[in-house]
Specification:
Two copies of one chain form a homodimer. With 371 residues, chain A is an alpha/beta fold. The first copy, chain A, has two domains: 43-168, Rossmann fold, CATH 3.40.50; 176-320, Dihydrodipicolinate Reductase, domain 2. The first copy, chain A, has helices at 10-16, 21-28, 33-38, 55-64, 81-91, 125-134, 149-162, 176-186, 220-236, 323-337, 345-364, and strands at 46-51, 71-77, 98-99, 115-118, 138-141, 166-168, 193-203, 242-248, 261-267, 273-279, 281-291, 294-298, 309-311, 314-315, 368-369. In chain A, the strands form two sheets. In chain A, strands 14-13-12-11-7-10-9-8-15 form a nine-stranded mixed beta sheet. The first copy, chain A, has a six-stranded parallel beta sheet with strand order 3-2-1-4-5-6, sandwiched between helices. In chain A, strand 9 and strand 10 (273-279) form a beta hairpin. In chain A, helix 8 (176-186) crosses helix 9. Chain A is globular. The interface between A and B is medium-sized, with 32 and 32 residues.
């Protein structure tokens, strides 16, 4: 086997990804982070404003921003006054940094806010990313980037025109186990990748949720399918050249507009293939890759925490991190230092090009070539 | 979770599948089998003749027949005199029980032979099954049963007309871990099955092998694809109602006639789906099932030995068996006792109906409905 037995060790991870011991400790026990930070010279934190205070902002990003070192929560944008009050009280956000959707554009004048994180329903990603750019703010846009590739191109252009950075809220690229399977695949540690299998889904039953509405950018493929798609792309390091896809629904009364389960198959230039699926009808969280001389998997592979896996050389041993804290910290550093984003807008665009082709393949029932 | 913690125990397995302690001991240590047998009243063994002495007969079935209790190797059919000599010497097969393809039909007069096991290239399964039936012998036919469903129907009819039993050389249905996933799926222990993923393949590089020749019944789908297909069928306990499929080849110089890798997707009446593949281009041996309230997998799932797996309730703990010995013993008992076969010809037919649809889906690029 080409991989030495201990290459998947925690030490190698820290070395390869230049993660400091303090950060790793913080990732494992976030509460300790601030104290670790005191022992190093304070760095200038960037200020972030969250746009849209739904589940992901409330339960995940808000708490994660209590453990970031390079960015801090300074503002919010919400249409619900009660939410504004709660966040103001909980996080001590100044009144001056609280906006609603009417006052949003005035954020241009607020020097405390460097970054706007768009956490709105998918159909609003393009509009608010473009308005944020026009306000002169750097943008983190949640995944999927937008409703389609054309919107993504407009968002990229708007940020380019405004001279601001644009990055996507992809977490997995910052996660150590995921970085390891990216390395194993892209560096062909077990030879060329032959097949990526992945399934990502959960049971969605909320009839009134925007994720079931087509106009809002709903559907399993948009929401969870991007994880399976990303896995195939980041493991092969290639862009698919053709796709077939099949959409199915077992609850037609609930899924009147969008897909409940989509299976999709990708062909890559190297000859690698991917057989992927995503679902709002079942809980699944599984990636398995077959390479010429070995295999590797992650299970779960797209959860907020608890990512585990192994290769044909043995189990992985990497730390668990606060994915969102690490993601936002690195994105803030890229903005502060003017260095390239790990997941720039172009990365979101690449996914949406494939998603467009998947919808076309579902619609036509035929194989769709890309590019 | 609906499954009690210890239901996957060895004791339960033995109870459920009526496997005696002696047989399990024999499975684990085949050499001990004869001695275990001495302590129980001797049973009448049926005589079997292997037709076709390629790898599977030579390396697998011949040795396995040294550990069977209800059937014994008594004859061979081969076109190669040197092979006949070797088998005669190694297994003490009487000259009278050695046939070639010209003398084959005379086996009708040989009372020592009860069962003919057809281990020839796929394109010869139908002819030799029918000739065996016409000779009044019971038939075990290797998988895949034949080139297509129409041949399967002719084989079933021929055996019915001759009043002999017909069974397929499927192993997995006799394997304890596999029987457990059949139970978990079919009895909906974790609720309804939502998705079966499976991949079965190895790297085939023998340019002159019949498995690369279309007329001989070659191709990954025919050879290894049946394992993935079977998994979806025996886990759901349903027959697929529609299929999509895609064939790919990375070595066109080698795969001039048949598929190197085929991905195929099945729809079942319950709404369960399967995303499956098979390959002569990569080693893969993996099944993962998502049910409403849990999951289970086998890895490897189709090997001759070493099957392992787990469910969302924990790892399986079942004995390893000599799959072929257990298979042939049970098939011989069904013949001797006139009881239904676990995998009758109709089971092979059901697979070939789907395989026909898969080839049609590959050819047309369209979804093909079945039945």
């Amino acid at each position: 086997m080409p991989l030495p037995p201990h290459s998947s060790s925690r030490r190698d991870f820290m070395k390869r990804f230049a993660v400091g011991a303090g950060a790793v400790a913080a990732m494992k026990a976030p509460a300790v982070l601030a104290r670790v930070g005191e022992r190093v010279p304070p760095r200038q934190k960037l200020g972030i404003a969250l746009v849209g205070l739904g589940y992901y902002s409330t339960q995940i990003l808000g708490p994660a921003l209590q453990h970031t070192q390079d960015v801090e929560l300074r503002g919010i944008v919400t249409g619900t006054p009660a939410k504004a009050e709660r966040w103001k009280a909980q996080y001590g956000i100044p009144e001056a940094n609280i906006y609603n959707y009417e006052t949003f554009d005035r954020i241009a004048d607020n020097e405390a806010i460097d970054i706007i994180y768009v956490v709105l329903p998918n159909s609003m990603h393009a509009e608010y990313t473009i308005r944020a750019a026009e306000a002169g703010k750097h943008v983190i846009c949640e995944k999927p980037m937008a409703l389609n590739a054309e919107e993504c191109r407009q968002m990229i252009q708007a940020c380019r025109d405004a001279g601001v950075q644009l990055t996507i809220g992809y977490r997995m690229q910052f996660e150590p186990h995921t970085q390891e399977v990216m390395r194993l695949g892209q560096e062909q540690v077990f030879g060329p990748v032959r097949m990526v299998q992945a399934g990502a889904g959960y049971r969605e039953g909320r009839a009134d949720h925007w994720k079931l509405k087509k106009a809002m950018g709903g559907g399993a493929m948009m929401d969870m399918g991007v994880y399976s798609l990303q896995a195939a792309r980041y493991i092969t390091g290639e862009e698919p050249i053709a796709v077939t896809a099949q959409a199915h629904t077992t609850r037609p009364e609930l899924f009147t507009e969008v897909d409940e389960t989509t299976m999709f198959q990708l062909e890559f230039p190297s000859g690698a293939l991917a057989t992927l699926y995503t679902s709002f009808g079942m809980g699944v969280n599984d990636m398995y890759t077959t390479a010429a001389d070995g295999w590797f998997y992650l299970r779960p592979f797209s959860s907020y925490s608890g990512i585990q896996g192994a290769s044909s050389n043995g189990p992985f041993d990497f730390p668990q991190i606060n994915q969102q804290a690490v993601q936002m910290d690195e994105q803030a550093r890229s903005i502060r230092d003017g260095t390239p984003m790990r997941v720039p807008g172009e990365e979101g665009l690449r996914d949406m090009i494939v998603v467009d082709a998947i919808y076309q393949a579902i619609e036509s029932g035929e194989r769709v070539e890309i590019g």
